[in-house]
Amino acid sequence: MSSFEIANRTFQSHFANNPYPGRGLIIGHSQVEESWHQVYFIMGRSEHSRNRRFVVEGSTLRTEPVDASKVEDPSLIIYEAMFELNGKFIVSNGDQTKTLYEGLNEGKRFDEALSTREREPDAPNYTPRITGMLEVDAAGERISLNTLKGNRINPENTDRYFYYPYLPSSGLGYGLTTYLGDGNPLPSFAGDPLVLPLQGTAEDILEFYWEALDADNRISIAVKTISEGGAKSEIILRNKYE
Length: 242
Description:
Layout lengths: L2 H14 L7 E6 L5 E9 L3 H4 L1 E6 L2 E6 L14 E6 L2 E5 L3 H10 L4 H5 L14 E9 L2 E11 L7 E6 L8 E6 L16 E4 L4 H11 L5 E10 L5 E7 L3
Antiparallel strand pairs: 1-2, 1-10, 2-12, 3-4, 4-5, 5-6, 6-7, 7-8, 8-9, 10-11, 12-13
């Protein structure tokens, strides 16, 4: 079975036939040009979780409430999801984006900065924190991924998984989501990063994943395109609620 067949089979099982993968990120190489893509999407089941949208400020992607008067607790739903720093392109599902950004700025490694954080404190789900980073500099290109999730014996404790995968072929990427599917409590994502398709232009990728996400639960999706060498980037997005 080819890499693309594996990626498409994974896509079908984890996205097209899954009502609730939760929040997710993908980092991979463009199929149509010499560039990289980062994908980030959010979903929600409650009114509180659905009261969000993506906004772009320069090279930064963040969430904001659609109706500020309905916000109960902003700590887990309002955050910067994409940051850039000196050829390092960060994407995550929570405020650990800022933790990593500040840690890198202080000279810390990817794992050092994120080892200061825990899984989300939302018992009984104990939602994983997922983070990815693409580095593009004179030394080459590197992908780093991390999951912080509740320990299987006692989810109040945090297990930390770090991945440094070999660079994917054009049209493929590595992905993480917060959940395996729907449930009460929600089953946390488990296993190695997913190999997923990133075929066509940024607009094609956005449409492909948006249409695959459950229409009731999807909220927002964004695709950042990063030029070969990291000199420039561009974000496109789609929001369900404006």
